[in-house]
Amino acid sequence: MPRYLHTSIFVNDMEQSIDFYTKKLGLRLLGGPDHHPGNADMAFVGADWNSYIELVYEAVCEHLREQGVKILRGPKKSPGGTRSIAFIEDPNGIPVELLEPRRR
């Protein structure tokens, strides 16, 4: 059964963003920040793993975005290599991550 899992937010400064979500909003750092060579730096904040926010920093994509490039990626394997991942854009230009469900 599909369910809401998390929201991805592309951030300009990982340390500043973790500080904001944990110290100011009171969420916990659930994981990361982790560096995935050739992919992105990621951290996860939330009350628990049932519903959380994924913070994503990609220097290359940020540089392209600053130049007005529209970023849409995937599908490709997730950093763990077990599931497919893709990024789409909603009507407001907000990136939405699509993550293949875990197989049971």
Structure description:
18% of the residues lie in helices and 42% in strands. The chain contains 2 helices and 7 strands; from the N terminus they run βαβββαβββ. A hairpin with a 5-residue loop joins β2 and β3. The longest helix has 11 residues, at 14-24. It is globular and about 35 Å long. The mean pLDDT is 75.
Q: Secondary structure elements and their pairing?
A:
Layout: E1 6-10, H1 14-24, E2 28-35, E3 41-48, E4 51-57, H2 59-66, E5 73-77, E6 84-89, E7 95-99
Parallel strand pairs: 1-4
Antiparallel strand pairs: 2-3, 3-4, 5-6, 6-7
Salient structural properties:
single chain, 104 residues, alpha+beta, three-stranded antiparallel beta sheet, 2 helices, globular
Provide a short characterization of the protein structure.
This protein is an alpha+beta fold and 104 residues long. 18% of the residues lie in helices and 42% in strands.
Counted beta strands: 7
Radius of gyration: 14 Å
Mean pLDDT: 75
- Shape type: globular
Unreliable runs = none
The CA-CA distance between the termini, in Å, is 12 Å
Q: Bin the helical content.
A: 10-25%
User: Can you list the strand order of the major beta sheet?
Assistant: 1-4-3-2
Number of helices: 2
For this structure, the quaternary state is single chain
Structural class, from helix and strand content? alpha+beta
How many strands, which pairing sense, and closed or not: the largest β-sheet?
Answer: 4 strands, mixed
Beta-strand percentage? 35-45%
The H-and-E topology, N to C, reads as EHEEEHEEE
